[in-house]
Backbone:
């Protein structure tokens, strides 16, 4: 991970409120896990300067870490637009993977023109536990694609994600991560020193951290 890029992207996400931090009133993920951070990277698409920067850094990262590709694949729905931008810049075809198969028509899980044997880079907007992201990788591998790896805007740096990617033998490279975000948030006064301990504790053990809260009205369900 490039330090300069990681801090720049973290600052962008904080500026446009794509990232929200609240250690006192956690957000609730769809899995039920409570988190002091809410991330919506789709907001980056509304800001041309930030959108362009992310696209350029994605392209640079792909070229440096993986080399030539045959196909760019986005993970639905958050990374479809990001993937299209990257594919356009690289001059490559694009496809995307649904979270589940369509219930009508051809019942596709993979949408677009995809061929067995193609070298594929997968684009994601964010990685939490990695389960949904790696489901897309599995679908592509089952189709016969050679998935070279995945790139994402942001990762929470959760240990479970690291273990999941290792188990799937899939490399993950991101533009920024939880550590750089916290560093920039502290520097820019989005959080205070006394928030830092709680944020670190969450990353180390999210389940245990969340159990300390008895919340009747959670912030946002992701």
Residues:
């Amino acid at each position: 991970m490039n330090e300069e890029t990681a801090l720049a992207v973290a600052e962008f996400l904080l500026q446009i409120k794509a990232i929200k931090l609240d250690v006192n009133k956690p957000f609730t993920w769809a899995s039920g896990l409570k988190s002091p951070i809410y991330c919506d990277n789709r907001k980056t698409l509304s800001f041309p300067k930030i959108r362009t920067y992310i696209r350029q850094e994605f392209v640079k990262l792909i070229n440096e870490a993986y080399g030539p590709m045959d196909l760019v694949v986005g993970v639905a729905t958050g990374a479809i637009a990001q993937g299209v931008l990257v594919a356009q810049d690289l001059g490559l075809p694009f496809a995307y993977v649904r979270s589940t198969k369509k219930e009508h028509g051809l019942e596709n899980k993979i949408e677009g023109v995809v061929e067995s044997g193609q070298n594929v880079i997968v684009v994601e907007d964010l990685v939490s536990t990695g389960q949904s992201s790696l489901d897309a990788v599995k679908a592509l591998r089952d189709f016969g694609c050679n998935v070279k790896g995945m790139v994402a805007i942001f990762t929470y740096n959760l240990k479970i994600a690291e273990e999941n990617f290792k188990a799937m033998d899939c490399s993950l490279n991101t533009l920024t991560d939880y550590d750089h975000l916290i560093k920039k948030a502290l520097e820019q006064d989005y959080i205070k020193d006394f928030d830092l301990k709680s944020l670190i504790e969450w990353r180390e053990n999210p389940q245990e951290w969340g159990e300390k809260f008895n919340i009747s009205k959670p912030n946002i369900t992701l």
